[in-house]
Specification:
- It is built from six helices and 16 strands.
- The protein has 263 residues and is an alpha+beta fold.
- The strands form two sheets. Strands 7, 8, 9, 10, 11, 12, 13, 14 and 15 form a nine-stranded mixed sheet that branches.
- Helix 5 packs across helix 6.
């Protein structure tokens, strides 16, 4: 199901978007008509809209579009809210062109079970802090990784630092603390949920630069996104990563502590 500004989207609405590459979005999992970290999703949309369009869609209006979408679907589903300019790309739009919202729903998902192997690719996203659309490189490197016998890909910046995966954030375990990679990347909503819940649970966490050469000194690795707070990773490039069930347990426990919120 797809809705534009709270109403069913038809061919006329969607055709201009088929080739649009100037937009941003947030993806969330709905369970029982409620969402974890809804405040983080709203903040993500607000900040990205200011960055791309110089103006925002009022939060209450976005929430109303989410509520409308929930009335037409199952209580458990995947939901994506995309904010775009009707002026499209390759144009200069002033403040008179207001951004609009497309809400799309699909079947609920919990992601792969893992463990996963990740190829390493040198790649840096444009505007890495914005969850924008049209990123052909992500699908390209995913397919290349699978062709090489991996499950997915992890990105290295020009300094050799691990940053993120194609559609994932990365996290590591040093045996007692959660280690977040330090590099330019998209800060995921699940990552933000875990950071604040780990603080509340008193679980140690810190940020550090991590290269492939640092991996043998770490005790576990995961990927995470809106589907899941943690899927085990057993190999990154040529380096085997040990299983870390305690790490996975900590992340899932922290994620479960985040309350659900209705739009």
């Amino acid at each position: 199901m797809a809705q534009r500004n709270g109403r069913a989207a038809g061919t006329k609405d969607l055709t201009p978007l088929a080739f649009a590459g100037f937009a941003h979005f947030t993806a969330m999992q709905v369970r029982g008509d409620r969402i974890r970290g809804l405040d983080l999703h709203m903040e993500r949309l607000r900040v990205a809209s200011l960055k791309l369009f110089g103006q925002t869609v009022p939060e209450e209006r976005v929430r109303s579009y989410l509520r409308t979408a929930l009335k037409t679907g199952a209580s458990d589903l995947s939901m994506t809210a995309t904010v775009y300019s009707p002026a499209g790309e390759f144009t200069v739009a002033g403040p008179e062109v207001k951004p609009e919202v497309l809400v799309r729903t699909a079947a609920a998902s919990n992601g792969p079970t893992g463990p996963l192997s990740l190829a390493t690719v040198e790649y840096e996203r444009v505007l890495p802090a914005v969850k924008h659309v049209g990123e052909v490189a992500k699908t390209h490197y995913l397919r290349e990784a699978v062709a090489q016998g991996f499950d997915d890909a992890a990105f290295l910046d020009r300094r050799g630092r691990l940053s993120e995966g194609t559609i994932w954030n990365l996290a590591f375990w040093d045996g007692s603390a959660v280690v977040w990679p330090r590099a330019d990347m998209l800060g995921g909503t699940t990552m933000a949920i875990l950071r604040r819940q780990l603080r509340r649970l008193g679980v140690p966490q810190y940020d550090r630069e991590i290269t492939v050469n640092d991996l043998p000194s770490l005790s576990g690795a995961v990927v995470m996104n809106s589907w899941t707070p943690g899927v085990a990773v057993h190999r990154i490039g040529p380096v085997a990563i040990p299983a870390a069930p305690a790490f996975l347990d900590v992340l899932h426990r922290a994620f479960s502590a985040e309350p659900f919120t209705a739009p």
